[in-house]
Each structure stands twice: as structure tokens, then as C-alpha cells.
Amino acid sequence: MGAGQLAQHLPLLLEDELVCVMSRRHPLAAAELTLDSYLAAPHVVPARYSMAQRGVVETFLASRRLARDARVVVPYFEVAPHLPADSDLLFTTARHFAEHFACHLPLTVKALPIEFPTMRFYQLWHERSHQQASHRRLRSLLMRAAQRLKPGDVAGQAGSRLTGGTG
């Protein structure tokens, strides 16, 4: 470790599958979501957090020489699910995130037509805060909350707005 660098801790919180979110009124909500229809549809995407790195979805698609129509870019991840609720946009995100918003907005959650790698969520902190009691407490609470999450936790609350299949 060089001068001025601090050690970092990076434990995995959880992994989650990626799904597609769309308006309940979207034509694809009642149809089979094929790879062609997924790629051709307009998408809302969060802004890249680094110009040097692509997101999980773009990286995966590029590795297969595929691309989607990233029509709208939003600065914050939390904004993205609100746009498909009243438009023809699709949004690809982690299932827990999608199901939460499907409970509150007129959205349908569908399985993707191609198997993406899981999305991983991590905690990150520097060594300087590693022993701080308040920081340890917060990390512990986050880890316990993540461990309690299981696929479908939110699904029961969303009722018929969720579909697990591809059709």
C-alpha cells in the first residue's frame, strides 16, 4: 500500500437477479418478452458512475455483441423506475428494487429473455472507520438486513403486478 492510501473493506451484502420493469399498459407486459423486443424497446438507464466503466447490463450485452436502445439517462438510480410507469420505456434492474417499486407504481416486473449475471451489492469502508463503534453498528445492521432478503420477499405485497415468466 502506497503512502496516503488506506486499506478498504468490501464484503458482499447480497446478490440479486436482474429483471425488466415496464408499465402495466406496455404492449410487452401482456406478451412474450423476446430478446429482439427487449433490445429494440427504448430503455431508461442510470448514468454511468465512471466514464471508464460500463454498467452490468451494457457490459454483458457488449460481450455478446448486442446493444439496447438506451434512450433516456437519469442521474439517480431511484428516478429510473418512475419513468416506465407512464411511458413505453423499459428499465433493467435488480429484482428487489423492481418489486419494491412495483408495489407503489403501475409497473410489471418480467424475467429477462436472456440470462444476465447476478447483480452484486457490497458495503465499502476505509480502514480508518473500521473500528468505530457507530460504523460497526451500521455495517452490522446493513448486513443483517441484506441476509434477511430473499427472492420474492416483496412479491407477496405486489400481488398480480409481478410476473416471473418470460411470457
What layout of secondary structure does this protein have?
Layout: E1 8-9, E2 12-16, E3 18-23, H1 35-40, E4 42-46, H2 56-63, E5 69-74, E6 91-94, H3 95-102, E7 107-111, E8 119-122, E9 125-126, H4 133-148, H5 155-158
Parallel strand pairs: 4-5
Antiparallel strand pairs: 1-9, 2-8, 3-6, 3-7
Keywords:
single chain; 167 residues; alpha+beta; three-stranded antiparallel beta sheet; two-stranded antiparallel sheet; 9 strands
3D structure, described in words:
The protein is built from 5 helices and 9 strands, in the order E-E-E-H-E-H-E-E-H-E-E-E-H-H. It has 167 residues and is of the alpha+beta class. The strands form 4 sheets. Strands 6-3-7 form a 3-stranded antiparallel β-sheet, with helices on one face. Strands 1-9 form a two-stranded antiparallel ribbon. Strands 2-8 form a two-stranded antiparallel sheet. Strand 4 (42-46), helix 2 and strand 5 form a beta-alpha-beta unit. The termini are far apart. The model is unreliable at 154-167 (pLDDT under 50).
**Total number of beta strands:** 9
- Cα shape: globular
**How much helix is in the residues?**
25-40%
From the helix content, strand content and strand pairing, which structural class follows?
alpha+beta
Q: What distance lies between the first and last C-alpha atoms, to the nearest angstrom?
A: 51 Å
Order of helices and strands: EEEHEHEEHEEEHH
- The rounded Rg comes to 18 Å
Q: Could you list the spans in which at least 5 consecutive residues all have pLDDT below 50?
A: 154-167
Give the DSSP E fraction (strand runs of 2 or more residues): 15-25%
The DSSP helix count reads 5
Largest sheet, spatial ordering of strands: 6-3-7
Largest sheet: 3 strands, antiparallel
Mean pLDDT: 83
